[in-house]
Design brief:
One of its GO terms (biological process) is signal transduction. The protein is of the alpha+beta class. The protein is built from 9 helices and 12 strands.
């Protein structure tokens, strides 16, 4: 049956730390998972492809980074000039009430970073003409008036205002993003999600998540960890499948969560150690004292035992010598 093993899981599927389960068991866990997320977008779908069971859906991943990460800035200059193109077309700016249509293929993080800039620029450029229309409604606007406005508006922002815009810090899904330095500081424990399948390995999921937020860092700098409520922490190996691991640990994020952490800073915490993590230092100190006392009692007990054995051996040797 080892030859039937596959990433999608033919007769059985390999999950966390080499744990294998049959397809029927996986489908039962999947049913429980979907019942927990009933009526929500986190339900998973499954299908068969060339005899393999493929599961697809959204996977929640929590940020657990200790250091900031770098983001790409590609078309920032083009976004700043988009409103200027509309003004130079000869159309009055006040008629442009609807925002330009957004490209559905744009990255969500990029859209959230761009929108504040566009809103700030459109408000600063459109406030003056709107005010003029309100104060002098009886004066008709001519084409020459619009052309004068068109010439002045691109130069309306002072260098100090432009500097403030460049230094402005935006919030992307609850995380802070510095527009000037391209530094991304995810809030620890905040959650995001990516659409994955059961055939995607840990490295592939990491690459997909970093590409979603245009992160320049190498995916090999990071790792995925399953963090339990007890404090137990298990690192997913490169050949494991995060979506399968999520199903095996159940749907409840309070019991087990999937964290993105640095490879060099994250460390595994076994269950034996995790059960003591949440105790306060005085309690842990008392545990250490109890263990020391128990150790001393064991040392005394073993010392007395071997002394008794030594005495018995000496007595037996004396008996053998006397018998000769």
């Amino acid at each position: 049956m080892a030859g039937d093993e596959s990433a999608g899981g033919l007769p059985f599927v390999r999950g966390v730390s080499g744990v294998c389960l049959f397809r029927s068991e996986l489908l039962s866990l999947l049913k429980t998972y979907n019942c927990y997320h009933e009526g929500r977008s986190f339900q998973l779908r499954h299908r068969e492809e060339e005899g393999a069971l493929i599961i697809e859906g959204l996977l929640n991943i929590s940020w657990g980074l200790r250091r900031p990460i770098r983001l790409q800035i590609q078309d920032d200059r083009e976004r700043l000039h988009l409103p200027v193109t509309a003004w130079t077309s000869g159309q009055p700016t006040c008629d442009q009430k609807e925002p330009p249509p957004q490209d559905s293929s744009r990255n969500p993080a990029e859209e959230l970073a761009a929108d504040p800039l566009q809103r700030a620029e459109s408000s600063s450029h459109s406030s003056e003409p709107l005010k003029g229309d309100t104060e002098v409604p009886q004066l008709p606007r001519t084409r020459s008036d619009a052309s004068c406005v068109i010439q002045r508006r691109p130069k309306g922002r002072t260098p100090s205002e432009a500097q403030r815009v460049r230094q402005h810090r935006f919030s992307i899904n609850g995380h802070f993003y510095n527009h000037k330095t391209s530094v991304f500081t995810p809030a620890f424990g905040s959650m995001t999600n990516v659409r994955v399948s059961s055939t995607m390995t840990t490295l592939q999921v990491l690459t997909l998540l970093l590409n979603k937020f245009r992160v320049e860092n190498d995916p090999e700098e990071f790792a995925l960890y399953i963090v339990h409520e007890s404090g137990e922490r298990t690192k997913l190996k490169d050949h494991e499948y995060p979506l399968i691991s999520r199903i095996l640990h159940g749907p409840c994020e309070k019991i087990a969560r999937l964290f993105l952490m640095e490879t060099d800073l994250g460390e595994e915490v076994p269950y034996d150690v995790a059960q003591y993590i949440k105790f306060e230092m005085p309690v842990l100190d008392s545990f250490v004292e109890k263990l020391k006392e128990e150790e001393e009692r064991e040392i005394i007990k073993l010392t007395m035992k071997f002394q008794a054995l030594r005495l018995t051996m000496l007595q037996r040797l004396e008996q053998l010598v006397e018998a000769k």
